[in-house]
Design brief:
The chain is α+β, with helices and mostly antiparallel strands and 475 residues long. The chain has 2 domains: 27-148 and 350-415, Periplasmic binding protein-like II (D-Maltodextrin-Binding Protein, domain 2); 152-347, Periplasmic binding protein-like II (D-Maltodextrin-Binding Protein, domain 2). 40% of the residues lie in helices and 12% in strands. It has 18 helices and 16 strands. β8 and β9 form a beta hairpin. α8 packs antiparallel against α9 and α17 (425-439) packs antiparallel against α18. The longest helix has 20 residues, at 446-465. The radius of gyration is 25 Å and the shape is globular. It starts with a helix and ends in a 10-residue tail after the last helix.
């Protein structure tokens, strides 16, 4: 009997240890000497040092090795190469628009196999809706966000007070921004063409967030780039109805027209030229903003700290700069009045953390991510980095901040740019950047340029679908 009992016990242990990855079995026995390598973007080691040490104390068998990267493009290339060789980290950061592109490199959350409860419903209840849209595929969770940043507007309060009647802040819609920009702008015969510019917009080549501003406008115009099957581009033929005028229009063309109008001398709201950043091409629009020569610029939440640093650098060189109190933030303009349409859109950009399929310790890696994303640790993270929280239960307090509250408010209605993973982002940037550059020359109609961009992207897709058949440069 004892031998039979021992045999049955051995069979039970063997069967319990052979569960498939899809089973919902909790970790029963901790592994020994687990080392989790974390690759992250932008955040210094000290940002997550406290939470990581707390996790290691609670899990003495686990050591976390953290590595910071700062160049997104180089980081992605290095990550792809390392993972292709079966190497790389256990945990790594991805851009919010990269999930589909790198889906096969990710080990989704093993529901039921972590000590901290997490599933699709808990995720949706905890994080903002865009995180579910971006990071969940077929009911599986592929990444966890610690923050959700959005493109916001930075403006000079004194310029508005002195130049725009009855207000000291930017308007809520793009149409009103165009009017305010015209009111503020003061033209002259200088190299820049302006002694005072209303807004930094309209060009891609000398505005840090030029493509982001254009992307925001496209997002707000509900543009769809590909058909449902993902085999045909449709944005050049897509039509919409203006909710105010009830007129039919081509939203992609209108986005280009609106964006470039700020840099086109043919329009009343012309306010930005090629020479606006000629005196400091590295800082681009930051320097004229800090010198009080442009009243509105765009950036993500971390731009505020950068503006303060650049301001000190300029002061040390004897450059006259605006008071810190004049630097204010506001939510981005909308295509139509929110009070009338009930619709708002903001452009999101964030880098959630995920687990590599190459990892030998996926359950432990996900346990660390769930720990880092709990309420206490996300609050700590937001306080240290000033980045907007990814959690719904922390946003109300952040909304009260006079500067960073803008980005916390936008997180609740932000969306990621809907380009899908059919082509790499760089190809869209080339195609749409070419439209902007050529349209400012006023030699071709925007409709024709849009058609050319669509042909270029279709060419690139055909080239990638049939590798080796063509060496043609599609752009």
């Amino acid at each position: 009997m004892k031998r039979l009992f021992a045999s049955l016990l051995l069979i039970t242990i063997l069967f319990s240890s052979c569960r498939t990855k899809g089973d919902s079995a909790p970790i029963e026995l901790p592994k020994e000497n687990v080392e989790l390598h974390v690759w992250n973007l932008f955040d210094d080691t000290d940002v997550l040092k406290g939470p990581i040490q707390a996790f290691e104390s609670a899990h003495p068998n686990i050591k976390v090795v953290y590595k910071k990267f700062v160049d997104v493009e180089e980081y992605e290339k290095f990550l792809i190469n390392e993972m292709a060789q079966g190497e790389g980290p256990d945990i790594f950061a991805i851009k919010n628009t990269w999930v589909d592109k790198h889906l096969k490199k990710i080990a989704p959350l093993p529901v039921g196999q972590t000590q901290t409860p997490m599933n699709e419903q808990i995720f949706e209840d905890t994080f903002f809706s865009l995180a579910s849209d971006d990071l969940i595929r077929d009911h599986q969770i592929y990444a966890i966000p610690l923050y959700v940043d959005t493109l916001g507007m930075f403006y000079n309060k004194s310029v508005f007070r002195d130049n725009v009647p009855n207000t000291d802040k930017p308007a809520k819609t793009w149409k009103e921004i165009m009017k305010q920009s015209a009111q503020i702008t003061k033209k002259n015969n200088s190299l820049e063409r302006f002694s005072l510019s209303g807004i930094s917009a309209g060009r891609i080549d000398n505005i840090r967030r030029g493509m982001d501003i254009l992307s925001l406008m496209m997002l707000q115009n509900n543009i769809e780039f590909w058909n449902t099957a993902g085999d045909r581009l449709v944005y050049s033929r897509q039509r919409r109805i203006d909710p105010e005028t009830k007129d039919s229009f081509f939203p992609f063309e209108e986005s280009i027209k609106l964006f470039t109008s700020f840099a086109n001398p043919r329009f009343k709201n012309y306010t930005w030229s090629e020479s606006m950043t000629a005196r400091d091409k590295e800082l681009q629009e930051l320097r004229p903003f800090l010198e009080g020569k442009v009243s509105m610029i765009f950036g993500y939440s971390y731009l505020y700290e950068e503006l303060l640093k650049v301001r000190e650098q300029l002061l040390s060189k004897g450059v006259s700069v605006i008071p810190i109190s004049d630097i204010q933030t506001q939510e981005v303009p909308q295509m139509n009045n929110f009070a009338e349409t009930g619709k708002r859109d903001a452009l999101a950009q964030y880098f959630p953390l995920t687990v590599s399929r190459n990892s030998l310790d996926t359950a432990e890696a996900w346990e660390l991510l769930l720990f880092l994303s709990n309420k206490e640790n996300v609050k700590h993270y937001s306080e240290v980095t000033k980045k907007p929280s990814s959690r719904k239960d922390l946003v109300e307090e952040q909304m009260l901040d006079p500067l960073y509250g803008t980005f916390a408010r936008q997180a609740s209605y932000a969306k990621s740019f809907p380009k899908t993973d059919i082509l790499d982002e760089s190809h869209y940037t080339k195609a749409f950047g070419n439209i902007v550059t050529e349209s400012l020359k006023n030699k071709k109609e925007i409709g024709a340029l849009v058609q050319i961009s669509e042909e270029s992207l279709a060419c690139q897709k055909a080239k990638e679908d049939n590798p080796g058949e063509s060496e043609k440069d599609c752009f």
